[in-house]
Amino acid sequence: MKISKVLSVNITVLLIMMSSAVFSQNSRPSEHGPHANLEQGRLLGDLSTLDPRKKPSQNFDLQDWSLTLPTDINKDKKADIIYEPALDKGFELKPFFYTGGDGGLVMACPNIGSTPSLNAKYSRTELREMLRRGNPRVKVSGVNKNNWVFGSAHGSMKRKAGGIDGSLEGTLAVNRVSTSGDEDMIGRVAIAQINATKHEPLRLYYRKLPGNSKGSVYFIHEVNGVLDATVRLVGSKSNTLENPADGIELNEKFSYKVSVENEILYVTLIREGKKNITGSYNMSRSGYDGGDQFMYFKAGVYNQNNGGVKGDYAQATYYHLKNSHAGYKY
To answer: Which residues, at least 6 apart from 158, have a Cβ–Cβ distance to it below 8 Å?
Structure first.
């Protein structure tokens, strides 16, 4: 199968100070906004429909996703990218992207692998939202029908974009995290993202340290041109954290829902039989509503460790994946 290739705002001193802070799950406005009606303690999606005999695209709608792999088959020193048509026709590649024995979509990524560009630090086996759904006349990047914008963007941008604001749902289990390498990177994997023109409004992390049986979940918001803000859901990103209270074990299924509405970022963590946890961040002064800013979701295994011993890797299995946007017409 043919594999194709892809190739500031001014901020006040107060916001600069806030952007380096760590926020708890209680720092959220308006009682969870669009997530207020999520059922407590119930995983998202219908996992009963998954069939281990089927290709990934037969269990999941992959027509509006492309896939970045940690491989470089054609030796051009960049990660391989599988576009929507090939992905939709049943592409899989063990051990990186395939249907698992329980019907879930397995994604695995080594610590050391190919990256999308020379400037990229980390390898990934990760899906990239493509609202064009295989239409080659629509470019990958830009304010166009392949990407979405904030509802606060100028009206002309909203008319050009494929969607306005939006939500991403995922149900997954993290099967393995890296166990070697630098202490700042070990055990750390991003399972979902919002990417913008240059920065990342969201990176949702799972992190489990080698001595612990349970992991943390938190997200980071990049404020354009300033420092990052961290919002804790369970545990923290600490390099020395002992087993976090109410943490998540490897192979334990959990769900997340990410939403952007009225420049507020909401992230809800859902575990079966437990109370949902929601964190949020006000992005109104983060610089993502400018004239050149476009967004897209990402989901999978973005291995945040580029060192350690040969053969070390991270892996997750997805059981549900759903993206939605206001004004999405495809």
So the answer is: 149, 151, 164, 327
Cβ distance 237 to 218 under 8 Å?
Answer: yes
Distance CA 237, CA 21 (A): 13
Tokens linked to 232:
């804790």
pLDDT digits (tens, 9 = 90+) for 15-46: 333 333 444 444 445 578 899 999 999 999 99
Q: Cβ contacts of residue 81 below 8 Å, gap of 6+?
A: 3, 4, 5, 6, 66, 67, 68, 69, 116
Residue 87, helix vs strand vs coil:
helix
pLDDT score of 8 more than 60: no
The answer for residues whose C-beta is within 8 angstroms of residue 96's C-beta and 6 or more apart is: 69, 70, 71, 107, 108, 109, 125
Contacts of 61 (CB under 8 A, 6+ apart): none
Show the domains of the chain with their CATH numbers: 13-326 (2.60.120.200)
pLDDT at residue 29 in the model: 52
Provide the whole-model pTM.
0.90
Strand (E) or helix (H) holding 15: helix 13-19
